[in-house]
Design a protein that fits this description.
The structure holds three protein chains of three kinds.
Chain A (H helix, E strand, L loop, with lengths): L4 E4 L3 H10 L3 E4 L5 H6 L7 E4 L8 E3 L5 E4 L4 H6 L1 H6 L1 H8 L4 H6 L2 H6 L5 H4 L41 H7 L3 E5 L4 E5 H4 L18 E7 L8 E6 L10 E10 L2 E10 L6 E2 L1 H7 L6 H11 L11 H21 L3
Parallel strand pairs in A: 1-3, 2-3
Antiparallel strand pairs in A: 4-5, 5-8, 6-7, 6-8, 9-10, 10-11, 11-12
Helix pairs in contact in A: 5-9, 11-12, 12-13
Chain B lengths: L19 H5 L15 E7 L5 E7 L1 H5 L3 E5 L34 E2 L5 E7 L2 H8 L3 E6 L6 H4 L15 E4 L2 H7 L2 E9 L11 E6 L6 E5 L4 H11 L7 E4 L15 H13 L3 E4 L2 H7 L6 E9 L5 E12 L11 H5 L5 E10 L13 H19 L3 H7 L17 H12 L12 E2 L2 E13 L5 E8 L4 E4 L9 H13 L6 E4 L16 H24 L15 E4 L2 E4 L6 E3 H7 L4 E8 L11 E13 L5 E11 L6 H20 L5 E2 L4 E2 L19 E4 L22 H13 L15
Parallel strand pairs in B: 1-12, 10-11, 14-15, 19-20, 26-29
Antiparallel strand pairs in B: 1-5, 2-4, 2-6, 3-5, 7-15, 8-13, 9-10, 9-12, 13-14, 16-17, 17-25, 18-19, 18-24, 21-22, 22-23, 25-26, 27-28
Chain C lengths: L15 E7 L2 E7 L5 H9 L17 E4 L2 E4 L12 E3 L12 H8 L9 H16 L19 H7 L10 H17 L1
Parallel strand pairs in C: 1-5
Antiparallel strand pairs in C: 1-2, 3-4, 3-5
Classes of the chains: A alpha+beta, B alpha+beta, C alpha+beta.
The complex binds flavin-adenine dinucleotide and FE2/S2 (inorganic) cluster (2 copies).
Chain lengths: ~325, ~750, ~190
């Protein structure tokens, strides 16, 4: 790892100031992604601004029933938060299915949103990778691409976003609050991460000098009936091959409300709007779940090793919706 | 008359590990943790191409980086002589993993070959400077694909001690005519040992550069000593290699990989101790793992389920520089009786990191193929797979035509079937379920040969009634130190608490590599010999001493127990070691001994066996497989320590579950690079992947081995992948012949 | 490389004073900001009980406790952990008296080579606390409830951040169960 200069910011303004004033600077939170990437020589910042001391570590109820999650709330604390467990179980589950207890104790909300892909060729600095080194090519296209994207990929990049938490946030219609030099703005979660197109080096729509301050969950009463299912290669401590976050409200056999998002399938957490369209107002049965899943994955494209993800995603969607439909009344 | 109380010996008791306290308190010192003054830190630079020549190596940026003391390349490295490769038949063969002359050549033979060592004041400086070395290559066409090189495959001269092509009768002919047959290809991917302790070497030269001390994470201190002595033209006794605590090896630390001599060379040049710890990526790149295999197993049977043909052939990969054949046809040589047999193994030579032995080399992939095939045949014939095995149980070794020294497979299956509730399983696939989970059960046989190698030991009996023994043996978690202490206690008639066993130091008497599950009996026999020597010396003192109640006794008239020596026919006549040594004004009695396998072992087929039972749950919707129950019933001779032996079996089974379901090194054939050199992406089983594995052992001694024991380290992994695959078939009706059984193969 | 790559007074440059509170003892060190807490412990303080198994956050061998919570010290920069209470395996026993988990690990053979063991034990100590506080895990069935059964699956999932290549998981779970039951009985 290259050496760098380190500073610890005590408030958001100072943090933003430091990042604008210094070349090649980055925020540091839990370090579980950034330190890893620096050790692999993929990130080589000259300055690190430690933001873990910022007073942004609270989960607060908002008037109107929503919740605000500070950017520095650690993943383990968020998952264990009683409000989240009761009102947004999908979020607790998604976080708990990610990484390990040790990493969740370090990882923060802001860092989790900003974590980068786990593509093998992104990690191997001897390989070609447009995300790491724009213009060099993509070794994943013809290489091992079992863990790669089936939706929204481009010929320049087929990497996936690895976060579980963000998939739940996508299903919950969260918004990301950020602050830059003098301006604060709110970015809907579905617009926070981006598709690779021909600039896969840019993961998100956050500007380099912007700091995430919090994530807001809107009031979503029916999210009490929500869940996260993660399909992976080992029982724990593995990234998702495919994951599904969903919330469902069924009234008199009809789907009144549904939120559906997929993980492990795209460069960003994938909000399944096509499926939602099919589902909303329809009769809640296996057939419609299948149709909705198929509709969402119509646009999917498989590569040499990952075509299975298309069927896997469909099956997992159906399975999760079935579970939520049958449990919906009970909760 | 005093009642004579015969205390049960230490052997067979479930003692807790002798080194347990050190390990749970963080005080066990592993190679990288020795505190050596003024130590500098090393880091490796790895080649980025698979085959070619180094045209230019630009080191100035690295040399000028803060803290850097040395950048060692082929341009400035001291000469390191060529030494025999491990496994060659030469005298003092040493531990070299290959014949590549790292840093004494500009040739690149594999992607990941170390091409430079950077030494700096701190670890951070060394690791960073290593990234600043820029290498230009003249690339050559590399051979990287097993399939493509098959036409050039070679038949090895032998695969450890056995012919690589063996024909009895006409197996193909019998197969063609058979009533029942299965004939399939099974493949296994490359695996990496991935011991959690990263390979580490700490080298310190004496000022006159005539002697060398090396702390190394090795399974073969004597081998490393021999290799380094030759490489650096030193007298062997001036090279001391210490590896007392080793954080797992599984074969991956049996050879000395490039970093070992390169660290020693760097220390020589900088005239300071140098410590080098491989990164996890470095382990994947520069330490070889298990070769992938492509195996054909064909079985033919008559109407009553007797095998008429057994064919097991196939390919593995290796390099020109090490030539290690993974002996996957070994199980087929010993497990089943068949009228016609054909076994053949070929190797292809590739430009890859030299492959090496990993827990049960050969037997582990071999049993996957063979034991899957037996299951397939059983299904084909509608016979219970345990019954099919019983019908083909040989009464003599099928290929050696020798009697078995010990073999209780049928008993293991009988006990196991009862414990597991085998009779409750449904033979028809896809007939057991629990909600969305399909449930399946499978069995397979575990097999590993019983090896004994020459070894030596010395023992000291002290005046205070305690004793220590020493041998250059290894303890990487196998429980060897505990088992040998038990052996020592019983040999000398002392209590377990009164003895200690020292190991992991080349200054101690010779011990072989910790491989082939040989340690327990190889070193056990040497300890016995050393104890006999010491006992004779003690008897020699008292037998002619007027002051002793044992005067005039013959050696066979005395016995050693309770810290002393006593007449066999009169338990009251005798004296303690303490009393004897005091009278003779000695503070200790020493004994030395050597042992090698006896001639008897040539007249028998010696192996260990096990019956494995596995239950899996398969998520019908996603294809995810989880092992929900596992039982291993083992026939491994007398068990010295049930507690540590059970851990060995469980550990092997755990690794077998990884092999079956999650592990695979992804080798990108375009560049010859492993692309998942990380514990995040090379999936070792985690706690939740492994059920509460049940173990049972028969504890029937082998009359031919020291203590009646066999090693237990490797058999644990054998058969496991087949038991899992067979259970998956039973659950889903899908036969997966290509490991690992990932969910995409079951959708 | 220039000696001053500072971007202003706020930035610590090259080596900086780092004060670490480890097992109740204050250590005053001079470290580059890039030194991980793991390497600070092993290479600079000389506490080698904490192990390096991957340096990739993927094995848990480097687990230590910070203010009684478990973290992977390989991803922690030492400078970030000043003023925090760090406990390593060396600080787990009370003088000569082993921690109940340490004793249980020996008794239940919860290890073989022992290399993952310090991480396993530190991890298990923190897991007890998490459990007592009612924190859920990925296998917790009723997420909203704080009374969670200390089942085998719960232990296994919660310990899945600590790899053991020797495969001592069965012994590890048994040891944890034994120590936990003992504590619960008190
Ligand atoms: C072995 C392993 C397994 C894992 N498994 C999973 C998994 O299964 N599922 C999963 O979801 N994740 C997994 N992770 C990833 C983990 O969740 C992320 O590393 C973590 O969430 C990152 O958070 P952090 O606070 O540590 O971020 P850091 O590493 O500190 O930062 C990451 C990035 O975010 C930026 N950043 C941090 N905070 C802010 C802020 N407030 N504003 C703007 N930018 C900011 C940093 O500059 C940096 O670029 C795994 C990680 C490892 C190492
Ligand atoms: S060394 Fe930190 S997780 Fe492996
Ligand atoms: S005891 Fe060896 S890795 Fe766990």
């Amino acid at each position: 790892m290259k050496n760098f200069a380190y500073a610890r910011a005590q408030d958001a303004d100072t943090a933003v100031q430091l990042i604008t004033q210094n070349q090649n600077a980055k925020f540091l939170s839990g370090g579980t992604n950034l330190v890893d990437l620096m050790r692999e020589n993929i990130e080589q910042p000259d300055h690190l601004i430690d933001v873990t001391g910022l007073p942004l570590a609270q989960v607060e109820e908002l008037p109107g029933g929503g919740v605000s999650i500070g950017a520095l709330v650690r993943n383990s604390h968020l998952a264990a938060n009683q409000i989240i467990r009761e009102r947004y179980p999908v979020l607790s589950q998604a976080i708990l299915m990610g990484a390990s207890a040790q990493i969740r104790n370090m990882a923060t909300t802001g860092g989790n949103l900003m974590q980068r892909t786990r593509c093998y060729y992104f990690y191997d600095t001897d390989a070609r990778c447009n995300k790491r080194e724009p213009g060099t090519g993509c070794d994943a296209l013809e290489g091992f691409n079992r863990i790669h994207a089936i939706l929204g990929a481009s010929d320049d990049c087929i990497a996936t976003h690895p976060s579980d938490m963000c998939v739940a946030l996508a299903a919950l219609d969260a918004t990301v609050h950020v602050t830059g030099t003098g301006v604060e703005r709110t970015i809907p979660i579905v617009e926070f991460h981006r598709l690779p197109e021909d600039t896969p080096q840019i993961d998100t729509n956050l500007q380099p000098d912007e700091l995430i301050t919090s994530v807001e969950l809107p009031a979503l009463p029916f999210a009490r009936n929500s869940m996260y299912r993660k399909v992976r290669d080992r029982a724990s401590y593995a990234f998702a091959l495919v994951s599904v976050a969903a919330a469902l409200e069924v009234e008199d056999g009809t789907i009144k409300n549904v939120r559906l998002a997929l993980g492990g399938v795209a460069h960003k957490p994938w909000r399944a709007t096509e499926a939602e369209k099919v589902l909303t107002g329809a009769k809640a049965d296996e057939e419609i779940f299948k149709r909705a899943a198929a509709e969402e994955l119509k646009a999917a494209r498989g590569y040499k090793h990952n075509s299975f993800k298309i069927e896997l995603a469909e099956r997992t969607i159906v399975s999760v919706l079935k579970t939520l439909a049958s449990e919906g009344g009970a909760r | 008359m005093s009642a004579r109380i015969v205390k049960p010996g230490a052997i067979g008791q479930p003692f807790s590990r002798v080194d347990g306290r050190l390990k749970v308190t963080g005080k066990a010192t592993f190679a990288a943790e020795y505190k050596v003054e003024n130590v500098a830190h090393g880091a490796l630079v790895f080649s980025q191409i698979a085959r070619g020549k180094i045209k230019n190596i630009e080191t100035s940026a690295a040399r000028n980086a803060p803290g850097v003391i040395l950048v060692l390349t082929h341009e400035n490295a001291p000469e390191m002589k060529k030494t025999p490769v491990f496994g060659s038949d030469s005298e003092e063969m040493g531990a070299a993993s290959s014949s590549i002359l790292y840093l004494n050549t500009d040739e690149v033979y594999f992607n990941g070959q170390p091409v430079a060592v950077v030494v700096a004041e701190t670890l951070e400086q060394a690791e960073h400077a290593a990234t600043l070395v820029a290498v230009e290559y003249e690339e050559k066409q590399a051979k990287l694909i097993l399939q493509a090189e098959k036409p050039d495959a070679v038949l090895p001269e032998h695969i450890p001690g056995e012919p690589s092509d063996l024909k009895q009768g006409d197996a193909e002919g019998a197969l063609a005519e058979a009533l029942y047959k299965v004939d399939n290809i099974y493949t296994t991917p490359p695996f990496n040992h991935n011991a959690i302790e990263l390979h580490a070497t700490l080298a310190e030269w004496s000022e006159d550069e005539k002697s060398l001390t090396v702390y190394d994470s090795t399974q073969y201190v004597i081998g490393v000593q021999e290799m380094l002595a030759k490489k650096f033209s030193l007298r062997k006794e001036n090279v001391r290699v210490i590896g007392s605590f080793v954080g797992g090896g599984f074969g991956g630390k049996g050879n000395a990989w490039a970093h070992v001599s390169l660290t020693v060379a760097a220390a020589k040049v900088v005239k300071r101790p140098v410590k080098l710890v491989l990164s996890r990526e470095g382990v994947h790149l520069s330490v070889g793992g298990r070769t992938p295999t492509e195996q054909r197993v064909a079985l033919a049977a008559n109407d009553v389920g007797k095998l008429t043909a057994l064919i097991h052939t196939g390919f593995t990969q290796t390099t020109e520089h090490n030539n290690f054949a993974e002996q996957f046809t070994f199980p087929a040589r010993h497990l089943y009786k068949s009228e016609n047999i054909w076994l053949r193994q070929e190797m292809v030579h590739l430009d890859i990191v030299p492959n090496t032995f990993m827990r049960a080399p050969g037997e582990s992939p071999g049993t996957f193929a063979l034991e899957s095939a037996i299951d397939e045949l059983a299904h084909e014939m509608g016979i219970d797979p345990i019954e099919l095995r019983a019908r083909n149980e040989p009464d003599r070794d099928p290929v050696k035509d020798l009697p078995f020294s010990m073999r209780n497979i049928k008993e293991a299956y009988r006990v196991g079937a009862e414990m597991f509730g085998w009779s409750k399983r449904h033979a028809a696939p896809r007939t057991m379920r629990d909600g969305r989970f399909l449930i399946g059960c499978g069995v397979a046989t575990a097999f590993y040969p019983a090896y004994q190698f020459p070894a030596a030991a010395r023992v000291e009996i002290h005046a205070d009634g305690t004793a220590i023994a020493q041998s250059a043996m290894h303890e990487m978690g196998m429980g060897s130190a505990t088992a040998q202490a038990q052996n020592l206690a019983d040999e000398l008639g002392l209590s377990f608490e009164q003895v200690r066993f020292e190991y992991g130091d080349s200054n101690f008497p010779y011990a072989p590599v910790a491989g082939g599950s040989n340690s327990t009996i190889s070193v056990g026999a040497a300890v016995k010999a050393a104890c006999d020597d010491a006992k004779k010396k003690i008897h020699g003192l008292v037998g002619e001493d007027d002051a002793s109640p044992l005067k005039g006794t013959r050696f066979d008239e005395v016995e050693f127990r309770e810290g002393g020596i006593y007449r066999r026919d009169d338990a009251t006549k005798g004296e303690t070691f303490h009393a004897i040594l005091r009278r003779f004004e000695e503070d200790k009695i020493e004994g030395e001994g050597e042992a090698a396998p006896g001639a008897e072992s040539e007249k028998y087929s010696m192996g260990s066996y096990g019956a494995l039972f596995c239950e899996v749950r398969v998520d019908e919707e996603t294809g995810e497989v989880r092992v929900s129950r596992f039982l291993g019933v083992y026939d491994c001779g007398k068990i010295i320590n049930p507690k540590t032996a059970s851990s060995q079996w469980r550990g092997g089974i755990t690794m077998g579950i990884g092999m079956a379901l999650t592990e695979e090194a992804l080798f990108d054939v375009r560049k010859g690079r492993i692309v998942n050199p990380s514990l995040a992406e090379y999936h070792l089983p985690v706690n939740l992947d492994v059920p509460n594995i049940e173990i049972h052992f028969l504890d029937i001694p082998d009359p031919l081995t020291p203590m009646g024991a066999h090693g237990v380290g490797e058999i644990g992994i054998t058969g496991v992948a087949a038991a899992v695959a067979n259970a998956v078939f039973n659950a889903t009706g899908k036969r997966i012949r290509d490991l690992p059984i990932t969910l995409d193969k079951l959708l | 490389m220039s000696e001053t790559n500072s971007g202003g007074r706020e930035f610590a440059d090259r080596t900086v004073p780092v004060i670490l509170q480890i097992n109740g003892i204050k250590h005053e060190l001079q470290l580059e900001p890039r030194v991980s807490l793991l390497d600070a412990l092993r290479e600079y303080v000389g506490l080698t009980g904490t192990k390096k198994g991957c340096n990739q956050g993927a094995c848990g061998a480097c687990t230590v406790l910070v203010d009684n919570e478990r973290i992977n010290s390989c991803f922690a920069l030492a400078v970030q952990y000043q003023d925090r209470e760090i406990t390593t395996i060396e600080g787990v026993a009370h003088s000569d008296q082993l921690h109940a988990l340490q004793a249980a690990f020996i008794e239940c053979d919860g290890f073989q080579c022992g290399y993952c063991t310090p991480g396993q034990i530190c991890s298990a100590i923190a897991m007890f606390e998490e459990f007592k506080q009612g924190a859920p895990s990925a296998v917790t069935e009723h997420l909203a409830e704080t009374e969670i059964e200390f089942s085998e699956a719960e232990i296994k999932e919660r310990m899945s951040g600590n790899l053991c290549r020797c495969g001592a998981y069965v012994g590890i779970v048994e040891a944890i169960r034994e120590a936990f039951d003992k504590e619960a009985a008190r």
